[in-house]
Fold this sequence. Notes:
The complex is a heterodimer of chains A (166) and B (693).
Chain A: H1 8-13, E1 43-44, E2 61-67, E3 75-78, E4 81-85, E5 88-93, E6 99-104, E7 111-115, E8 121-124, H2 153-160
Parallel strand pairs in A: 2-8
Antiparallel strand pairs in A: 2-5, 3-4, 3-6, 6-7
Chain B: H1 10-24, E1 79-84, E2 87-92, H2 93-98, E3 102-105, E4 118-119, E5 125-126, H3 130-138, H4 166-179, H5 187-190, H6 201-225, H7 230-236, H8 241-267, H9 282-294, H10 305-312, H11 315-335, E6 346-348, E7 354-356, H12 360-371, H13 377-386, E8 396-399, E9 414-419, E10 422-424, E11 445-452, E12 455-463, E13 469-473, E14 479-483, E15 489-498, E16 514-519, E17 522-527, E18 543-553, E19 556-569, E20 584-587, H14 588-601, E21 604-620, E22 623-647, E23 650-652, E24 662-663, H15 683-686
Parallel strand pairs in B: 9-22, 10-23, 19-20
Antiparallel strand pairs in B: 1-2, 3-8, 4-5, 6-7, 9-11, 11-12, 13-14, 14-24, 15-18, 15-22, 16-17, 18-19, 21-22
Helix pairs in contact in B: 1-12, 4-11, 4-13, 6-7, 6-8, 7-8, 11-12, 11-13
Amino acid sequence: MRSPALALVLLSAIACARAPETPTPRAPPPVAAPAPPPAAAPSASDDLVTETPESNPNSETVTIKLVADQARKARVFWGRKDLGFAPLELQRPRGSGPLDLVVVTPGALTLHTRVFTDRDDKLALRFYAAADAPAMLGYRADDDPALKPPKNPEENAKRKVGAHVP
Amino acid sequence: MTDTVISLAAMRWTRRRRALVFSLFFVMGCGGRGDGQAVVSSSTAPAGASKPAPVHRAAPPLPDVGALPAAGGLPPERRAIQVVGGVERVVDADVARAQGLTLVDLGDDWAPAIFDDGAGPGGAVLPNHYRGVFTGLAANRTDGDGQPLDAGDRNYLELYGVPPTLGVLRDRFLADAARKCDPTFDVAKMLAVDEITTWGATTEQKELAKHHARGARLEAARAKANVDTLEALAASDPRYAKDVKAHLRREAEQAAFAEVEKRLACEGSLDLAKHKAGTYDTPMRKAMFDFQQEHTVFDQADLKRASLEALARPLLENDFAALRRVLAERAVHAGRFVEDGSSKATYAGSDGARHPVPDLATAATDAVLARLGLATPEDALAFFERHAARDFRSLRAAVQFPPLPEYHAAQMDLSVEIDRGDVWYDFPYDEKGVRQPQPRQQFPSFTLYTKWRGERVALVRWRTTVGGWRTELAADGQEYLRWKGSDVGKRVWRHIVTTPVWIPPASSPLGSMVKEKKVNGMFVKVTNYDETGPGYLSAYGLVAAIHEQIIKGPDGVTYYDNGIRTHGSFDYMSLRGRFSHGCHRLYNNLALRLFSFVLQHRHARTLGSVALGFKRDFWWKGDVFEMRLPSRGFYYELDPPMPVEVLEGRIMGEREKPISGYQRKPGVTYAASSKPPAASDSPESRAGGAEAP
């Protein structure tokens, strides 16, 4: 819940969207007397940063950019659909729901990620080699297919290249 | 819908007139009665009567307060409907407003105003992205991500705060009217039991086998005893009484179960081709759960009394109850009030008398139903038959709502009090690992007050949750018990957030962070955003308020977030007595009512979507999954903040303060050398003021 940015100035500039129906605001209600801080020091509340306004929030489509080194040959799938190799740019109807993507890259673990259509989105794809896995959050050696004997050579071959055929 | 007056069959009107007049009663004024006219004419007087027959005075025609003249040729944005004298007409919405009537939105594009876009600096639009998802869910158009539903899929989300649209209800009414299910099942058999015992698949087979074996044993004993019935066997030999009772109860349950199967099959929710008769298999369980969600029965796929009673009702009666619930939400939001009869409080009126805080929700719902001429399920069916689906793209009713109490104002001095009720700090197990009872008479309650004439007036009082002993996954990968408290004391609400996002701690079990989902025609593994949100399944529900502690220092006021929120919740069953991790949960629909009301009656700024930019990569079964949470939610800022106080409640048991840190859970085998690790210091972890054991 921490945010490094300070944007109270921006917030104060935001117009009052819910204008009071009476011209003069009433006196504020009594604010609770400050209680002593708890034994463990609490954290100061975040300074909130609103999302950057879009240049054209009413456009019918949004642009989604997937950034990756072309040399990685990262192939992007959206369900059955092969979207091609990253880097790539997609146009989708605004507000049509997120796209859950699977990105398959030789020499890297298959990546499952999501891009959004609420506004323009840009995502730099980050890949992990199989050797990186043990250091990752959630890694369990007993669940690692790379450490299990292959059931057949075909499966083994697929695993080596990180193949994912949706 | 046409602009012209729509005539209803005279017969239909006659049948329902009495109920309609009853419903209209409260919207009518006290005065204004016309002179009653004799209804017994000389021609109906008894022949040869020596003196005039007594004159029977019928109830005089009452003025139909709020009825407007029919208006033709209006542009769509000025149209509303009313049923006057049994006839539906189009009226002028501008005239309705001018006369103090409330326009109740019946359109399929309705969402609570709290999901509306806001206005930013210079009038820039601050889009609330969830509005489109909410309306898509309500209309059975999309899933929780806003993507199209598969053909035949339905959302049943009332219990999650998303009521169906009237267009969806129209489909239900028309389909159910065509089904004629009522004669196909036996209500008496269904209601002959209080509940039907169900089991998981493996246990069910064993239990059914035991039942058959017991039946065979008892039958043999009956024959040997030479009596006619099992009841007679039990009476003649008390050794069999217990078994006979259990056997007959199970027989009755099986008979009731067969009727439930018929009912669900007739409704089209149970596919008999996939279901094995007499078993509570997956198709049956799913059909039952859908039924319960559709009709807001809190049984969670169990077959208890509430479910059986709902199943025993005629289909259209259940649909009518759904219509009433849907109109209640529309009415409450249109009326900008929150009072629902839950507070039982009174207030001092300007007349010097005390008045009960009214149940405006019920009164306004009744007013909508009456103004639309909807007194019975048949009225509702007729309403939906005369309106095409396209009518519900934008349809409004012009309704005279009950008068608001005098304490209502554009700006109200609102505050909240949460009473934790009975609280046990004692460890819930003894030294032998035996669970110790910790009964509660007083459950946690949430009360919204307004200040009026020098006193606090309770507007609503609802059940809520508080923290307690919870299982938590520690950094060492082992599960421990930990007291998760609710932050006691005077705090404020400064921010109200729609579709708030919850960031799971890194220690969250990763299995729940991945799920299977159909994506563009194919099932794939995806990161599970259900709990994080934004969405109705989010841990923080559809809307939340952040509890903040004010600390005054030399540099001014600082707000501290101790990790506690009051929020809507998908976990509606938890509001019946379970514990939270410290937050105060409300039913999602009540949370939407509450926070809409607060924003309508307090000064607030719309901040819009607040950036989060959260990203977490994790490994799961050989693949990498990325969780991306770009926004915290859509924020409103209350200015000034609103007071909220959490009362300590009644401390039960021996301990006066909670135990801090992780405690070993009885029955769990821990690594021999392990000592519980230090508990995390997240805001949630600090709440409750725990101390060392």
